[in-house]
Amino acid sequence: MLDSLARLGRVGIGVLERLGRGHLLLLAIFVGLPDLLPRLGLLLRQIYSVGVLSVLIISVSGLFVGMVLGLQGYYILSQFGAEQTLGVMVAASLVRELGPVVAALLFAGRAGSALTAEIGLMKATEQLSGLEMMAVDPVRRVLTPRFFAGFISMPLLAALFSALGVLGGYFVGGGLLGVDDGAFWAQMQAKIDLHEDVYNGVIKSFVFGLVCTWIALFQGYDCVPTSEGVSRATTRTVVHSSLAVLGLDFILTALMFGE
Amino acid sequence: MTESVDTQEPLVRIRGLRFSRGNRVIFDGVDIDIPRGKVTAIMGPSGTGKTTLLKLIGGQLRPSAGTIHVDGQDIHRLGNRALYQLRMRMGMLFQSGALLTDINVFDNVAYPLREHTDLSPSMIRKLVLLKLEAVGLRGARDLMPSELSGGMARRVALARAMVLDPMMIMYDEPFTGQDPISMGILVELIRALNDASRLSSIIVSHDVQETAAIADLVYVISDGKVIESGPPEAMMNSDTEWTRQFMQGLADGPVPFHYPAAALEQDLLEASC
Amino acid sequence: MHNRTVEILVGAFMAAGLVAFFFLAMQVSNLSSSGNGDGYEVIARFDNIGSLKVRSPVTMAGVRIGRVSEIGFDRRTYEAVVTLRIESEYNVIPDDSFAKIFTAGLLGEQYIGLDPGGSDKFLQQGSEISLTQSALVLEEIIGQFLFSKAEEGDSFE
Predict the structure, then answer these.
(1) ipTM over cut 0.90
(2) Which residues of chain C neighbour A41 with C-beta distances below 8 Å?
(3) CB contact under 8 A, C29 and A192
(4) Which terminal residue of chain B, N or C, has fewer Cβ atoms less than 10 Å from its own Cβ?
């Protein structure tokens, strides 16, 4: 009885320690920001590997998600004779929810896991330790640029996802199923609000970008520096990021759209 | 750089060092003096925490008790900035080389210069090429670290550790896993660099022959304690049985060949049941 | 990968992201009709606002000219105090205009419609619209309808 209590306590303390280390790391990453500004080249290179390399998967997924939404939405809406509102349905679900969330999930799988593996391997091959011994702070030089690259890339990727999704929905709805062009766009423009829908979606994607990149970097930086440790950390990155995105999405939606 | 400290003072002075990881005690009261301008070897069986010792000297780990003075400064009492200042004057050669894998050899060696100095690109180029020449790899400057052999990677890392002209270089197992030729090159290099640039070197190793060949002073540590210290020749013929076993590489001695276990007969009988 | 290629690709990526964002802002939502910040606020009091919400549209002749920016409650008069933010280009609305709460469709969202009055003074920042008509609450209408039917029935007897 006491043993199991003690085990529970140990697990709790372990979780708290990790959380504490994670927050300290985030703080250290932010402290490194002024140091990053004169070295925008580092940031650029990371935006390339975090953002540019994710464009393909994000665009293709966005297009297809939009097309599926157009198809499904049309079948349901046409039963009520309301297929003119297809544009509203497609755009609202993309801009509010699917754009930020699905883009973040894909981002965690594509870029987050790569970040964790990269940092973990740098740790395992003593590169981080080596930087430290060269009197270079690895957090500032390695983690900070990657963090801000993720933070900047995520909203852009989510916007790409949503925009291509709307086009995909238009292509299916307007092009294949014969929803009236004008009604599609006009209804959409009348009902989708820049603040309520678009800006809130962008805020969401900033939050998701921060959380996903943070989790990925922390898992890499905190991993056991062996090949097994790195692979576990990579798995944890994807699992934790996905759960965090879905949980946070619920909270943010409740805060933003709840009355 | 002001030589405020008496040069007779040891460069690194370790007193009463204790360090444990979890429940495992790694150092239990270690005293070591690393003299200036000499090659000091710290030897011991695998798993005695030799790498940990280097990390303690470099200030990457904190001891649970005891002090480490480097060039007269207590390294674990320094603020972050002073610690980084001091680290610029220490070079460290990691076992794997620890080169940054996303930039080429030239940029790796130039990295500390670009980080810590305002030298012009042409000046950096000259310095880097000189250091690469010293390790014989000037021609390999455009290769990526993944294209280097293990020995070459270590030599590049050595050039990088040297590029800021440090007062000391710490070598973590420099000879492990090297073919005889690269091993010979490294042995030569370490000795030559030490004498040419008035460095102090610390070598952590369990390769007795190579290390003894270039060391001026040897410390043997085991089970968290310094067993013996002295010049390598004296150590080879030490009175202590343990040291002799280690230095001469005998299979059995005070360190038993067998890991502690129940008697063989008993184990076999149990297995047959 | 050369530095220049990286720079070009990152530039293209950021440009694409921004274009996507502007597409969402301009084409999907409607940036021009949701002006904010500029404009002026006027107050209207209603006995009952139904399900009117902050950001509900304010229209005149069916054209959206502003939004509800705040809804409060007057504790002395038990009235709802609704603040309307009207875009600055619509600055010639007579101050005796009539504010009514309408419902879009039978069950749709509620909005405020302004009927112009005849005054030659115009609404300004802080003006109050004194002529208002509350929201029609469906239950009340049905209740009144049934009540009047019942009365008709009585008179026939």
Answers:
(1) no
(2) 3
(3) yes
(4) C
**Residue range B70-92, pLDDT digits in tens:** 888 888 888 888 888 888 888 88
Residues of A in contact with C10 (CB under 8 A): 44, 47-48, 51-52
* A136/B58 CB distance under 8 A: no
pLDDT at C147 over 70: yes
Q: Which residues of A73-105 are buried (b: 16+ CB within 10 A; e: fewer)?
A: bbeebeeeeebbbbbbbbbbbbbbbbbbbbbbb
pLDDT band at B271 (very low <50, low <70, confident <90, very high): low
What's the Cα-to-Cα distance from A106 to each of A110, A255, B69, rounded to whole Å?
6, 24, 50
φ/ψ (deg, to 5) at C127: -65, 160
Interface membership of A171 toward C (CB under 8 Å):
no
Q: Are strands B73-74 and C40-46 parallel, antiparallel or unpaired?
A: unpaired
- By the CB < 8 Å criterion, does B150 face chain A? no
Q: Give the mean pLDDT of A156-174.
A: 93
Q: Report pLDDT digits (tens) over A85-140.
A: 888 889 999 998 999 999 999 999 999 999 999 999 999 888 888 888 888 888 98
Residue B247 reports pLDDT greater than 80 = no
Banded model confidence at residue B259, pLDDT cuts 50, 70, 90: confident
Percent of chain A surpassing pLDDT 70: 99
Quickly tell me which residue has 């990727």 as its tokens. A157
Q: Which residues contact C71 (CB under 8 A, 6 or more apart)?
A: C49, C52, C53, C54, C80, C81, C82, C83
Asked whether the beta carbons of residue C21 and residue A52 sit closer than 8 angstroms, the reply is no
pLDDT of B140 over the 70 cut: yes
A38 — contact with chain B (CB < 8 Å)? no
State the best of A50, A107, A167, A189 to mutate against chain C, taking most chain C CBs within 10 Å: A189
Contact A95 C24 (CB under 8 A): yes
DSSP A99-112: HHHHHHHHHIIIII
Ramachandran area for residue C84 (φ above 0: left; ψ -120 to 50: alpha; else beta): beta
Q: In terms of CA atoms, which chain A residue is nearest residue B164?
A: A134
DSSP type of residue C28: I
Which chain B residue is nearest to residue A121, measuring alpha carbons? B101
B101/chain A closest Cα distance in angstroms: 8
Picking from B15, B16, B11, the residue whose alpha carbon sits closest to that of residue B71 is B11
From the list B68, B2, B19, the residue with the least C-alpha distance to B202 is B68
CA distance A224 to A214: 18
Q: What does the angle CA B130 – CA B133 – CA B138 come to, to the nearest 5 degrees? A: 105
